[in-house]
């Protein structure tokens, strides 16, 4: 029987968060940590998802579980084994839950059989590990088919959806029809927003828990200007002066050092040192609309300040196992870039960052977000959008679509700018010009953005909500 991948998680003391919190929040966090230790003594909290890297869910799990272990909870993380047919099918469901048809394929009896067959070895593996006292937290559509089989172990089985759409349509209805028989058997379900919850779910078994950001991870820790410059210069992303350090801290506390990387740019050359960088960092996913960002910037190039450059940054498409569309979307963006006039190609850059070292990848993204003048997230739909939370924490001015959890994070005109219609490329360009043309305005947005993340989207709130849910279940 094939084994599932277990992701190693090192302990991180919750005391580290205390330096960012007021006394009341520290006291509440400590009280709930003690409650969790007593409540979960002798139990394992299993987390199961589809990938160990690439995307906000994997990053969030790494931080939350490390703090959980630091608080004395036996939290563990397993990653599904799946075949290409399974991941193609679950990507279809992912797109449908976002309200788009994706590849247009069916969701009938054959798909149910393929889905359950791919999950069967994983279920057998889990049954050998999970005991009746444990809690199993399953993440996203890839894992929903495990609910019934795991409940037979007498463990508490929870299912969490990190994705959704503000309003339903035929596509979302198709996806939920496929998932309903699996999901409604869970002891509790968790969503990031109330709007994502299907109307057939029982309210008593529902919890709304928004995601959170770890301010001390390699992606979010504060970096000096010198270290940012040296890192970006070393890997050829931005032509900046040397003089800082290439070292970074890994999640396990050890030190890493940025490697000699090359060919990170799929299109466009190194960003000039005097350029102000507009940047979107996300998966190569049609719902993130990287191509639309590029088209808007290119079509309105004459309105942009002369020193403005655009970078679209995503993962190496061979490093994200559960996203078969990535290579197609990156190629679409590349072909669109090649069709642009030369003056636009000179100011637009496409980069694919390696995923074989997740801590190094996070450090590179961190350096880019610190360097950017404006960070954008022009998603057509979005589950929550940690790619917005991250630059907000770094006091960047953010321009993003008013969709999903992004609209919960940003107060328009105060902690960022929201685009009412993500498909309106003219309005998107207007927002970019407004921020780039007024540095003082951009600075005000960035300052308010960091405070909003501190108030609402750090891990203490997230952990406490889980403790309260576990207490009710047990």
Explain what the structure shows.
It is a single chain. The protein has 474 residues and is of the alpha/beta class. The protein has 2 domains: 5-212 and 458-473, 3-Layer(aba) Sandwich (Rossmann fold), CATH 3.40.50.2000; 225-456, Glycogen Phosphorylase B (Rossmann fold), CATH 3.40.50.2000. The protein is 42% helix and 15% strand. It has 17 helices and 16 strands. It has a 7-stranded mixed sheet with strand order 1-3-2-4-5-6-7. It has a 7-stranded mixed sheet with strand order 10-13-12-11-14-15-16, with helices on both faces. β5, α7 (170-183) and β6 form a beta-alpha-beta unit. α2 (23-39) packs parallel to α17. It is globular, with a radius of gyration of 22 Å.
How do the helices and strands line up, and which of them pair or pack?
Layout: E1 5-6, H1 15-18, H2 23-39, E2 44-49, H3 56-70, E3 74-79, H4 84-97, H5 109-129, E4 135-139, H6 147-151, E5 156-161, H7 170-183, E6 188-191, E7 206-208, H8 225-234, E8 247-249, E9 255-257, E10 265-267, E11 276-281, H9 290-299, E12 308-315, H10 326-338, H11 342-345, E13 348-353, H12 358-371, E14 374-377, H13 386-393, E15 397-401, H14 406-409, E16 417-419, H15 425-436, H16 439-456, H17 459-473
Parallel strand pairs: 2-3, 2-4, 4-5, 5-6, 6-7, 11-12, 11-14, 12-13, 14-15, 15-16
Antiparallel strand pairs: 1-3, 8-9, 10-13
Helix pairs in contact: 2-17, 4-5, 4-7, 8-12, 9-10, 9-15, 13-16
């Amino acid at each position: 029987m094939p084994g599932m991948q277990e992701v190693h998680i090192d302990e991180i003391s919750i005391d580290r968060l205390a330096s960012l919190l007021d006394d009341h929040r520290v006291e509440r966090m400590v009280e709930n940590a003690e409650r969790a230790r007593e409540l979960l003594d002798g139990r394992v909290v299993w987390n199961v998802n589809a990938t160990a890297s690439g995307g906000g869910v994997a990053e969030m799990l790494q931080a939350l579980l490390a703090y959980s272990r630091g608080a004395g909870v036996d939290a563990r993380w397993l990653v599904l084994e799946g075949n290409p047919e399974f991941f193609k099918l679950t990507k279809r469901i992912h797109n449908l839950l976002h309200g788009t048809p994706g590849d247009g394929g069916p969701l009938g009896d054959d798909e149910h059989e393929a889905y359950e067959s791919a999950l069967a070895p994983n279920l057998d593996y889990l049954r050998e590990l999970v005991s009746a006292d444990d809690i199993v937290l399953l993440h996203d559509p890839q894992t929903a088919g495990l609910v019934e089989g795991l409940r037979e172990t007498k463990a508490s089985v929870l299912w969490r959806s990190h994705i959704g759409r503000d309003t339903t349509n035929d596509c979302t209805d198709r996806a939920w029809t496929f998932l309903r028989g699996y999901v409604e058997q869970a002891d509790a379900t968790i969503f990031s927003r109330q709007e994502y919850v299907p109307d057939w779910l029982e309210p008593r078994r529902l919890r709304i828990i928004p995601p959170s950001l770890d301010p001390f991870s390699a992606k979010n820790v504060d970096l000096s200007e010198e270290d940012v410059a040296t890192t970006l210069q070393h890997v050829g992303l931005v032509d900046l002066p040397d003089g800082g350090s290439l070292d970074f801290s890994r999640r396990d506390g050890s030190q890493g050092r940025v490697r000699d990387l090359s060919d990170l740019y799929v299109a466009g050359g190194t960003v000039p040192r005097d350029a102000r960088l507009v940047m979107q960092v996300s998966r190569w996913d049609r719902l993130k609309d990287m191509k639309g960002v590029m088209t808007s910037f290119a079509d309105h190039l004459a309105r942009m300040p002369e020193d403005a450059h655009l970078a679209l940054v995503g993962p190496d498409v061979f490093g994200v196992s559960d996203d078969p569309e990535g290579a197609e979307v990156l190629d679409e963006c590349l072909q669109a870039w090649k069709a642009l006039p030369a003056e636009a190609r000179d100011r637009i850059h496409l980069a694919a960052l390696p995923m074989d070292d997740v801590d190094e990848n996070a450090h590179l993204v961190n350096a880019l977000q610190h360097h950017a003048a404006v960070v954008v997230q022009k998603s057509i739909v979005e589950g929550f959008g940690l790619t917005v939370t991250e630059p907000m924490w770094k006091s960047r001015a953010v321009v993003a679509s008013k969709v999903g959890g992004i609209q919960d994070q940003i107060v328009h005109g105060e902690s960022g700018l929201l685009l009412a219609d993500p498909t309106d490329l003219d309005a998107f360009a207007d927002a970019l010009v407004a921020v780039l043309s007024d540095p003082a305005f951009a600075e005000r947005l960035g300052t308010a953005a960091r405070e909003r993340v501190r108030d609402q989207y750090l891990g203490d709130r997230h952990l406490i909500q889980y403790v309260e849910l576990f207490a009710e279940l047990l």
